[in-house]
Design a protein that fits this description.
The complex is a heterodimer.
Chain A: E1 5-11, E2 18-25, E3 28-36, H1 43-46, H2 55-60, H3 67-82, H4 88-119, H5 124-130, H6 132-153, E4 162-163, E5 166-167, H7 173-177, H8 180-198, E6 212-215, E7 226-229, E8 234-235, H9 240-243, E9 244-247, E10 256-259, H10 269-276, H11 282-291, H12 303-323, E11 342-350, E12 353-361, E13 367-373, H13 375-393, H14 399-411, H15 417-420, E14 424-430
Parallel strand pairs in A: 2-14
Antiparallel strand pairs in A: 1-14, 2-3, 4-5, 6-7, 7-8, 9-10, 11-12, 12-13
Helix pairs in contact in A: 3-4, 4-6, 4-12, 5-6, 6-8, 8-11, 8-12, 13-14
Chain B: E1 6-11, H1 17-23, H2 29-35, E2 37-41, E3 53-59, H3 65-77, E4 78-84, H4 86-90, H5 102-109, E5 133-135, H6 142-153, H7 165-172, H8 177-181, H9 197-200, H10 217-226, H11 231-238, H12 246-257
Parallel strand pairs in B: 1-2, 1-3, 3-4, 4-5
Helix pairs in contact in B: 11-12
Classes of the chains: A alpha+beta, B alpha/beta.
Chain lengths: ~425, ~260
């Protein structure tokens, strides 16, 4: 058992291309390398010389699964540079758009990518043969999220309506209200999803994560808030780079983030919920209490439950935002006076966790420098630690079992490799 | 049960958005899965069946030596090969590197550039292997991808919009943003297919479906100049998501000549 080399072709049901190499010595994980070989696309470089107004459209193309996250972080960072404040109905419409992306992205992961692991199918299509109603619930939820993106964003993938300072066009109230019946039905489907997910069979695992997320004084964080961690970090979000650094590893096209002077940390649903479980809207809070979900979930497999909770809160929030909406006078705000060279940074909560953008712009409004730290590159090192623990706990597994277990453990974190830089190839070496 | 045609979905350098468009067909996904065998779609299934495949949908552009080799393999295993999206059809946003020094790009993004294997250019799939049909868009329109699959199942040519975004915009009854607002727009030179969404949201088209069949870019560039766009801004508008598509590349080069 201790002298083996295994190469498995790819990890499926994740967004992006990567591979995993495990080297075992004496039944212990010696090397664990999550390799991301998604071809680099050099976004930070190709943003230079572009107008600041192009940044939301260009950075959206980093990821087809969470383009709104890129648009939001880009807008907030540039608005900070330009001294713009987006408040009132424009702010509410942004949060509504983000709710749409959270619903769409999480429903995709819960039902099409993650649930097949728990129910023992290779994919949702085969799962649908035995669990058709379940898969249809998932597709309907996903469609509800997409309905928000389509109405407010113009289309589901790479929305065209997001602009630095607001939107190109804002909907009249009656147009937004057409979403309400769909979202009311989605809220019910989301509650059923929370109950479905909490009843799945989970391996018993506890990980000692350092969680990092935004925290907002009143609401569950999406666009705004301070950076906080379960180890006591509290930092204004624009100062992200003071607490976190990225290191390059020879086996990956994605940079890996670490706490400065510390180690790996976790962002995403588990982190957000652990740090913000007291910020749930009322209906979602009641369901969370009814199922007895603990405020800090350290079992990565149970992230599917937390994702479902976030779908429900996003549906609840979306309904609240639409009911309270009165259209703004203008679809966007513009920079006051002449542009002056400036820099600005921002963090927003992408479905997979915090997403940092920083820009420097010149007097001509053109971008001089850009820096982007996506959630998956932040989680990469912590996913490797999960895998190390998994291998060490059960080194007697066969290669096939180990491979399956590792793929599942990776999917727990919904890695978006297109962001970080698509399939995963698994190699296990045993010496 | 009759043998169903075998579908494969492949990814090259891209954002995954075009293959996600397939999963975004929420109302049709299970029906499509009944008509074709989804034999290889790694993003959606861990059951990957070996080729050959009857229809391959290819997303993404070729940017690494390994991918230049892999596309040959994909073609060899595929009876029909359809490219989906601006990356596979024109090189995508990442083809902006074709106009710049990729070495310098690599250093700007990564501290240790020697770890990164990349080509100096991002190229369309057609530049490497024969392609049976190309679907445009950044991202593709999901109705169009369903049409491609349906056409393939019925052994006919796909019917997708041709002509310009302008024609689509007029059919939608949208007020022209150029005429009414003086907003720069690429609608007259861009292929239809999106539904003219940008003008419908009161912004100019940014050309994400690439050049239409017979775009008069010289005339349109001079009109963009009259609307107040400097040569640098005209260059940027052509050099975005379909920068390496021949008509847009030429229009960009002309803007450079003008001082852009």
């Amino acid at each position: 058992m201790t002298d083996r080399t295994i190469a498995v072709d790819y990890l499926a049901r994740v967004e992006g291309e990567g591979s995993l190499r495990l080297r075992l010595e004496g039944g212990k994980a010696k090397e664990v390398e999550l390799r991301i070989f998604e071809p680099p696309r050099f976004f930070e470089a190709l943003l230079r010389g572009r107008s600041y107004l192009e940044a939301p459209d260009i950075t959206a193309r980093i990821c087809g699964i969470c383009p709104v996250a890129y648009q939001m972080s880009a807008c907030h960072a540039l608005e900070r540079a330009l001294g713009l404040r987006v408040v009132g109905p424009l702010r509410d419409l942004r949060r509504l758009l983000y709710c749409g992306e959270w619903i769409e992205s999480h429903a995709l992961h819960i039902y099409l990518l993650h649930a097949p692991d728990f129910l023992g199918y290779p994919d949702a299509i085969r799962m649908a043969k035995d669990h058709r109603a379940t898969v249809e619930t998932g597709l309907a939820l996903k469609q509800a999220g997409n309905a928000i993106l389509e109405l407010l964003g113009g289309r589901e993938i790479h929305p065209i309506n997001v602009r630095v300072g607001g939107f190109y066009r804002v909907p009249p109230r009656e147009e937004l209200e057409t979403l309400l019946p769909t979202l009311e039905a989605a809220l019910g489907a989301a509650e059923r999803t929370v109950r479905f997910a909490s009843g799945l069979p989970f391996p018993r695992v506890e990980e000692a994560y350092e969680f990092v997320a935004l925290r907002h004084p009143e609401e569950y964080p999406m666009n705004e808030g301070e950076l906080v961690s379960s180890e006591g970090l509290v930092l204004p979000q624009e100062r992200f780079e003071e607490a976190f650094e990225e290191v390059q590893v020879p086996y990956s096209h994605a940079l890996q983030a670490r706490r400065r002077g510390g180690g790996a940390y976790l962002v995403g649903p588990l982190a957000r919920f652990a740090l913000n479980h007291d910020r749930l809207p009322p209906k979602t809070r009641r369901v969370v209490e009814e199922i007895g979900l603990e405020p800090v979930v350290r079992n990565p497999y149970r992230s599917i439950v937390v994702r479902a909770v976030e779908v429900m809160l996003a549906c609840e929030e979306a309904i609240r935002l639409i009911r309270g909406y009165a259209p703004p006078e203008r679809p966007h705000v513009d920079p006051p006076g002449e542009l002056a060279g400036a820099s600005g940074a921002a963090v927003t909560e992408a479905p997979r966790g915090i997403l940092f953008h920083r820009y420097e712009i010149g007097n001509d409004g053109l971008i001089r420098a850009a820096r982007i730290v996506p959630p998956t590159s932040q989680n990469q090192a912590r996913i490797e630690e999960d895998l190390r623990h998994l291998v060490d706990a059960r080194p007697d597994r066969t290669d096939r079992e180990l491979t399956d277990a590792c793929e599942r453990a990776i999917r727990n974190h919904d890695p978006c490799i297109s962001c970080a830089t698509h399939f995963l190839r698994l190699e296990v070496e045993r010496a | 049960m009759a043998v169903r045609p075998r579908l494969a979905v492949w990814k090259f350098a891209s954002c995954d958005g075009c293959q996600l468009s397939l999963l975004d067909c929420e109302d049709e996904l299970l029906a499509v899965a009944g008509e074709v065998e989804i034999a290889n779609f790694v993003e959606a299934s861990s059951a990957v069946a070996p080729g050959p495949y009857d229809l391959s949908l290819v997303e993404g552009s070729v940017t690494t030596p390994e991918d230049a080799r892999r596309i040959q393999e994909v073609r060899a295993q595929s009876k029909h090969l359809v490219t989906i999206g601006a990356c596979a059809t024109a090189g995508g946003i990442q083809a902006l590197r074709n106009f710049q020094d990729v070495e310098e790009f690599r250093r700007a993004v990564y501290a240790r550039p020697e770890y990164i294997a990349t080509l100096a250019t991002s190229t369309a799939i057609r530049d490497h292997v024969p392609v049976d049909f190309e679907l445009r868009g950044c991202p593709i329109n999901k109705a169009q991808v369903l049409e491609v699959i349906a056409a393939f199942l019925h052994r006919r040519r796909p019917t997708v919009a041709t002509g310009s975004v302008c024609a689509e915009c007029k059919r939608r009854g949208v007020v022209c943003v150029v005429v009414a607002q003086g907003t720069p727009c690429l609608g007259p030179v861009t292929q239809a297919g999106c539904g003219a969404i940008c003008p419908a949201y009161r912004r100019g088209c940014y050309g994400c479906f690439g050049p239409q069949d017979s775009p008069n870019t010289p005339a349109w560039s001079s009109r963009l100049g009259e609307l107040g766009l400097a040569p640098g801004a005209i260059l940027r508008i052509y050099r975005t998501f379909n920068a390496a598509a021949p008509a847009f590349r030429a229009a960009g080069d002309a803007a450079v000549q003008e001082g852009g």
